[in-house]
Protein backbone atom coordinates (compact mmCIF):
# COMPACT_ATOMS: atom_id res chain seq x y z
CA UNK A 1 0.00 0.00 0.00
CA UNK A 2 1.43 3.36 -1.03
CA UNK A 3 1.39 6.09 1.59
CA UNK A 4 2.02 8.96 -0.82
CA UNK A 5 1.51 9.68 -4.49
CA UNK A 6 4.96 10.06 -6.07
CA UNK A 7 5.45 12.28 -9.09
CA UNK A 8 7.68 10.58 -11.66
CA UNK A 9 9.13 13.78 -13.12
CA UNK A 10 10.86 15.06 -9.97
CA UNK A 11 10.36 12.28 -7.39
CA UNK A 12 8.55 14.45 -4.85
CA UNK A 13 5.63 13.17 -2.79
CA UNK A 14 2.22 14.80 -2.58
CA UNK A 15 1.16 15.09 1.06
CA UNK A 16 -1.44 17.30 2.69
CA UNK A 17 -0.04 19.40 5.54
CA UNK A 18 -2.26 19.93 8.56
CA UNK A 19 -3.91 23.38 8.39
CA UNK A 20 -4.21 23.57 12.19
CA UNK A 21 -0.72 22.68 13.47
CA UNK A 22 1.16 22.94 10.15
CA UNK A 23 4.13 20.76 11.04
CA UNK A 24 2.63 17.32 10.41
CA UNK A 25 0.81 15.63 7.55
CA UNK A 26 -2.73 14.31 7.23
CA UNK A 27 -3.20 10.54 7.08
CA UNK A 28 -5.68 9.41 4.43
CA UNK A 29 -8.22 6.93 5.85
CA UNK A 30 -10.50 6.79 2.80
CA UNK A 31 -13.51 8.58 4.29
CA UNK A 32 -11.45 11.20 6.16
CA UNK A 33 -8.02 12.79 6.49
CA UNK A 34 -6.68 12.98 10.03
CA UNK A 35 -3.74 14.63 11.82
CA UNK A 36 -2.27 12.32 14.46
CA UNK A 37 -0.61 15.19 16.31
CA UNK A 38 -3.48 17.63 16.99
CA UNK A 39 -6.54 15.54 16.07
CA UNK A 40 -7.72 17.70 13.16
CA UNK A 41 -10.06 15.75 10.82
CA UNK A 42 -11.39 16.51 7.33
CA UNK A 43 -14.40 14.34 6.43
CA UNK A 44 -14.93 13.57 2.75
From TrEMBL:
Signal sequence extent: none
Keywords: Metal-binding, Ribonucleoprotein, Ribosomal protein, Zinc, Zinc-finger
GO molecular function, one term: structural constituent of ribosome
Pfam families the UniProt entry points to: Ribosomal_S27
Co-factor binding comment: Binds 1 zinc ion per subunit.
Family matches, as InterPro entries: Ribosomal_eS31, Ribosomal_eS31_arc, Ribosomal_zn-bd
Name the record gives this protein: Small ribosomal subunit protein eS31
Organism: Natronosalvus hydrolyticus
Taxonomic path: Archaea, Methanobacteriati, Methanobacteriota, Stenosarchaea group, Halobacteria
Amino acid sequence: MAHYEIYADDGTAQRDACPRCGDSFLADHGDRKHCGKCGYTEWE
